UniProtKB/TrEMBL annotation, chain A:
CDD domains per the UniProt record, alphabetical: fer2
PANTHER family referenced in this protein's UniProt entry, alphabetically: NADH-QUINONE OXIDOREDUCTASE SUBUNIT G (PTHR43105:SF10), RESPIRATORY NITRATE REDUCTASE (PTHR43105)
Cited InterPro entries: 2Fe-2S_ferredoxin-like_sf (IPR036010), 2Fe-2S_ferredoxin-type (IPR001041), NADH_UbQ_OxRdtase_ferredoxin (IPR054351), NADH_UbQ_OxRdtase_Gsu_4Fe4S-bd (IPR019574), Prok_molybdopt-oxidoreductase (IPR050123)
Residue span(s) of domain 2Fe-2S ferredoxin-type: 11-100
Organism (species): Pedobacter cryophilus
One matching Pfam family: Fer2_4
GO molecular function: 2 iron, 2 sulfur cluster binding; 4 iron, 4 sulfur cluster binding; metal ion binding; oxidoreductase activity
Record keyword Translocase present: yes
SUPFAM superfamilies found in the cross-reference section: 2Fe-2S ferredoxin-like (SSF54292), 4Fe-4S ferredoxins (SSF54862)
Subcellular localization, as worded in the UniProt entry: Membrane
UniProt name for this protein: 2Fe-2S iron-sulfur cluster binding domain-containing protein
Automatic annotation (TrEMBL), chain B:
Keywords of the record: 2Fe-2S, Iron, Iron-sulfur, Metal-binding
Name of this protein: NAD(P)H-dependent oxidoreductase subunit E
Classification lineage: Bacteria, Pseudomonadati, Bacteroidota, Sphingobacteriia, Sphingobacteriales
Source organism of the structure: Pedobacter cryophilus
UniProt-annotated binding residues for [2Fe-2S] cluster: C92, C97, C133, C137
Single Gene Ontology MF annotation: metal ion binding
Cofactor: [2Fe-2S] cluster
UniProtKB/TrEMBL annotation, chain C:
Enzyme Commission number: 7.1.1.-
InterPro entries tied to this protein: NADH-UbQ_OxRdtase_51kDa_CS, NADH-UbQ_OxRdtase_suF, Nuo51_FMN-bd, Nuo51_FMN-bd_sf, Nuop51_4Fe4S-bd, Nuop51_4Fe4S-bd_sf
Cofactor requirements of the protein: FMN; [4Fe-4S] cluster
General function of this protein: NDH-1 shuttles electrons from NADH, via FMN and iron-sulfur (Fe-S) centers, to quinones in the respiratory chain.
SMART domains: NADH_4Fe-4S
Species the sequence originates in: Pedobacter cryophilus
Catalytic activity: a quinone + NADH + 5 H(+)(in) = a quinol + NAD(+) + 4 H(+)(out)
Ranges in coiled-coil conformation: none
Catalytic EC class: translocase
PANTHER family: NADH-QUINONE OXIDOREDUCTASE SUBUNIT F
Keyword annotations from UniProtKB, A to Z: 4Fe-4S, Flavoprotein, FMN, Iron, Iron-sulfur, Metal-binding, NAD, Oxidoreductase, Quinone, Translocase
Family: Belongs to the complex I 51 kDa subunit family.
Name the record gives this protein: NADH-quinone oxidoreductase subunit F
């Protein structure tokens, strides 16, 4: 908290998440308030995407407990709420990882997300930067209790640059929002209902417009992948480098993924929560794969925990805030224990 | 992804288009998409099912993207995305109906027609399927037949026999 | 005989026409409300009546109306929820088929009270015949000056339209219904905002069940206080109960809330007892979503008192020993019925009807159905019951809309009350496919309470 924030106190609302207070603009969601605090208390988000209007609320991984509604109405909320779609109130108190109820519910959600997932990480291009992988690693159980055939779909090409592997999809709807909000016309959507719902174009049709490639970046799992990068390499063997070019269509700010001298793929730049900073165009993404096309800025900062950083799973480094807070230490006991195993 | 061979040519009659216009007039300006569900019912009543050609034409009429129509048509269970028999016998298979023998009726219809659920009889007249609760539990077992969705209640194997022969008569006369 | 408010004239020939309906006193409420009452007065009467939503949730209707936002220059909507799809419930179909004007009259009075100038009746698509009946009734009412511009010379305008659904149980959830009415997939919206603030087309909207709206007519005719005298405690008025399953006289009955469950099942006035001389095994009292109760718990409370047909009495004991009035879908199971099969059937229903938007319901409903299918077909394991309870807990309360709860409750309650029948299926896999567990001890008197 810097001093400037305190000076603007009059307009802001105060919310406490896992015992940590923060002052935020009115209308901020609990999730975004937690992101302002940072660290382990940030709920995971598989469907919410701050840059996509209307996203969120569907995956339920970000459920939290509101133990005090607000200063005016201190009653707790009767059910766990999706932190991405619930706005803070002044005086609200939220429990995330300090609530056993939340931890248990989240474990349940992760299990649900995985029962029909193919767990084909060894052959999935998303492995190493997959949010479902991270989620399962942090909150999942070691074995599944699901003993039935997993749901499968045919793999389809939606255009020559994007592969849709529906079997891996968790129906976050992000790619639909991208098509609605960033591209000119949407040709794909959610077809069917319930657990047979699928991302599809219905009649075979290429998703083809300048910004369609962004569906790859927003996809939290390996359902939408870059065909130009398909099976080229594991992401943790590639080196991310930030670069830009003067692009007439988009900002041109990208991350290049190098293997040796070769640019294997180009993506948008992503922030610490895995969201792209600025959407990029298909020309930058698919057609500019030479170093000479780009002005190199320098290596991308990759978090120490990331497999991309060190080519192997590193010891989990608990964030500073965890060490100082005994309650959090207790709440994170399991995670600490798991960390020491490695 | 579409798995049906489509050869249907779809023309909306003037009468049908007038009906569309009447439906659209029920909603505030700019909210024409509200007409989508009723219009799809009308189109299906005429064509028997919803081909992608028909859905594209509906999209064009309502000035929305074709995918918006596909999304809706595939969500709701009443819209057929593949050709059906002339008469689709939709038998309720949910709890209260099953307490009084709906499962036996469904099996009986299958035997009688000699086809599996979802298939069309060789003469093109019949298909059948189990559907979820039709809100007629007090008159169970029940089935409905579109596009008027006439209800046939308190079914027995005899009444099913009668119904099928009546429908055959009806078809041969038309 | 209990008082009848909605079905009083059901047997009058031609009651489906405006002419006969008026002769029996129909459209008095419209005249009274529009000519002699302010909109606030109408809302006040409904509040006084204590009427609770008849669609299943039981939320006080008057209170729901008073939440409606009224910003200047923004249209307000009343949408009637006639997407009746809860297994066991068929009262709305019955009412609309036989006395369509009861709903139309209620819609006019309610729309007036809420200041809506366009209202919709969202009828499930399978009810095409009822849609035609309602359209005809609307045309009659319009010709008689009860709808359209300047109703009864009051300056109040109202257009009423019937909207067909497309076949989706989920559209009975009010925000999914609004999405569907907007021509979209029936995905429930994430709340807040609630429809009272931003509903249809983003405008303030009230969504009410058919029966709730029809009940507004007698409330206006006789006054809210009169209505509140009927019934018991906070369960005021009359309720339509859809009775089905293994009873002698299935059908729709209008009861004064507070009738005992025993009377309802066994008296000649209502269900007329269990069919074929069999014995009662279990009851699903309020539509498939509510917990199933064995015979001994549905007839009596744990303290030995008789259980009554009211919101409070049916939920007495919470989910441990109680259930809910829900939508009034009263499904009776006799001694020959298999609880496991019935639970699997309901579970399949929720699996089929899940919209697939949020993960616990999309994945969990299918999982539960598969486990139950395995149990029913002789491939179950002893650990399956705990698994089912655990999965149901992971769904319950964690979903966007109440369909998750509705899918979880029947499974959890069946295992809670009929666990030995499930275990019997596991122990006797071959036998269980051929035979049923029977009545067992489910109708035995409850043990005395130890104080």
């Amino acid at each position: 908290m810097n001093i400037l924030n305190f000076l603007k106190l009059s307009e802001k609302v105060k919310v406490t998440i896992d015992g940590m207070p923060v002052e935020v603009e009115p209308g901020t969601s609990i999730l975004n308030a937690a992101r302002q605090i940072g660290g382990d208390i940030v709920p995971p988000a598989m469907c919410y995407y701050s840059k996509l209007e209307g996203s969120g609320g569907k995956c339920r991984t970000c459920l939290v407990k509101v133990s005090k509604g607000s200063e005016k109405d201190p009653r707790p909320m009767p059910k766990l709420v999706a932190s991405c779609r619930t706005n803070v109130m002044d005086g609200m108190e939220v429990q995330n990882i300090t609530s056993p109820e939340v931890v248990e519910a989240r474990r349940g959600i992760v299990e649900m997300l995985l029962i029909n997932h193919p767990l084909d990480c060894p052959v999935c291009d998303q492995a190493g930067e997959c949010h479902l992988q991270d989620l399962a690693y942090e909150h999942g159980a070691e074995a599944t209790r699901y003993e039935f055939d997993r749901r499968t779909f045919d793999r389809i090409d939606i255009g020559d640059k994007i592969q849709l592997h529906m079997t891996r999809c968790i129906l976050c709807y992000r790619c639909v929002f991208v098509a609605d909000q960033i591209t000119e016309n949407r040709v794909h959507g959610i077809l069917g209902r319930g657990d047979h719902a699928e991302i599809s174009t219905y009649i075979e049709k290429a998703i083809d417009n300048d910004f369609s490639g962004n569906v790859i970046d927003v996809c939290p799992v390996g359902a939408l992948t870059d065909k130009t990068f398909r099976f080229k390499n594991r992401v943790w063997f590639t080196k991310p480098v930030e670069a830009h070019r003067d692009c007439p269509t988009c900002s041109g700010k990208t991350t290049l993924w190098y293997k040796g001298e070769e640019v294997l793929r180009v993506t948008a730049r992503k922030d610490e929560f895995g969201e792209v900073e600025e959407f990029i165009c298909n020309t930058c993404r698919f057609d500019k794969k030479e170093t000479k096309d780009w002005v190199i800025e320098g290596p991308k900062k990759v978090s120490r925990q990331s497999v991309i950083n060190s080519n192997h799973y590193d010891q989990l480094q608990p964030a500073q805030v965890v060490k100082k807070n005994l309650e959090l230490m207790e709440a994170n006991k399991e995670q600490f224990e798991r960390a020491t195993k490695f | 992804m579409l798995k049906v061979e489509e050869t249907q040519s779809v023309e909306f009659s003037t009468e049908l288009v007038n009906k569309f216009a009447e439906i659209v007039s029920r909603y505030p300006e700019g909210k024409e998409k509200s007409a989508l569900l009723p219009i799809l019912h009308e189109v299906q009543a005429v064509n028997g099912w919803l081909s992608s050609v028909a859905m594209d034409k509906v999209a064009a009429y309502l000035n929305i993207a074709p995918i918006e129509v596909y999304e809706v048509a595939s969500f709701y269970s009443m819209y057929f995305l593949r050709p059906q028999g002339k008469f689709v016998l939709e038998v309720c298979r949910t709890g209260p109906c099953c307490l009084v023998g709906a499962e036996k009726i469904i099996d009986y219809i299958g035997e009688k027609l000699g086809v599996k659920e979802g298939e069309v009889t060789a003469d093109g007249l019949f298909s059948y399927r189990g559907v979820e609760c039709l809100a007629a539990c007090g008159f169970a077992p029940v089935l409905q037949i579109g596009p008027e969705y006439t209800f046939y209640e308190n079914l027995t194997t005899n009444s099913v026999d009668q119904l099928i022969s009546d429908l055959k008569d009806k078809a041969s006369k038309s | 005989m209990g008082r009848k408010l909605l079905l009083e004239h059901i047997n009058v020939p031609g009651i489906n026409t405006l002419e006969v309906y008026r002769k029996t006193g129909g459209y008095r409420a419209v005249e009274k409300a529009i000519k002699t009452m302010s909109t606030d007065e109408v809302v006040e009467e409904v509040k006084k009546s204590g009427l609770r939503g008849r669609g299943g949730a039981g939320f006080p209707t008057g209170m729901k109306w008073s939440f409606l936002a009224k910003p200047e220059g923004v249209a307000r909507y009343l949408v009637c929820n006639a997407d009746e799809s809860e297994p066991g419930t068929f009262k709305d179909r019955y009412l609309m088929t036989n006395i369509p004007h009861a709903l139309i009259e209620g819609m006019i009075v309610s729309s007036y009270a809420l200041g809506a100038n366009t209202s919709y009746i969202y009828v499930r698509g399978e009810m095409m015949p009822q849609i035609r009946i309602l359209e005809k009734a609307i045309a009659e009412a319009k010709a008689a000056g009860f709808l359209g511009k300047n109703i009864l010379g009051s300056g109040y305008d109202l257009e009423l339209y019937v909207q067909p659904g497309g076949g989706a149980y989920i559209c009975g959830e009010e925000t999914a219904l609004l999405e569907s009415l907007e021509g979209k997939r029936g995905n429930p919206r994430i709340k807040p905002p609630f429809p009272a603030i931003a509903g249809l087309y983003g405008c303030p909207t009230v969504v009410n069940n058919v029966e709730s709206i029809a009940a507004v007519v007698p409330i206006i005719n006789d006054g809210g206080e009169e209505y509140a005298k009927i019934g018991i405690g906070r369960s005021t008025g009359t309720k339509l109960i859809s009775a089905s399953g293994n009873i002698n006289k299935p059908g729709v009955y209008e009861i004064e809330l507070g009738v005992s469950v025993e009377d309802f099942i066994y008296s000649e006035e209502y269900c007329g007892g269990i069919a074929n001389g069999k014995r009662l095994k279990a009851v699903v009292a309020g539509g498939s979503s509510v917990p199933i109760l064995p015979a001994n718990l549905i007839l009596n409370l744990v303290n030995g008192d008789k259980r009554l047909m009211s919101y409070e009495s049916l939920s007495e004991g919470g989910f441990t020993t109680g259930t809910m009035l829900g939508s009034g879908g009263f499904v009776v199971l006799d001694e020959d019925q298999c609880i496991v099969r019935n639970t699997w059937n309901f579970s399949r229903f929720y699996h089929h009807e899940s919209c697939g938007q949020c993960s616990p319901c999309r994945e969990g409903t299918g999982w539960m159905e598969k486990v139950l299918h395995r149990l029913e077909n002789g491939h179950g394991k002893m650990s399956d019951m705990d698994l089912l309870v655990d999965v149901s807990k992971k769904i319950e309360g964690n979903t966007i809309c109440p369909l998750g709860d509705a899918a979880a409750w029947p499974v959890a309650s069946a295992i809670r009350h009929f666990r030995d029948e499930f275990e019997w299926h596991v122990r006797n896999p071959t036998l269980a496919v051929k035979e049923n567990f029977g009545l067992a001890h489910y109708a035995d008197p409850l043990p005395e309470l130890v104080s």
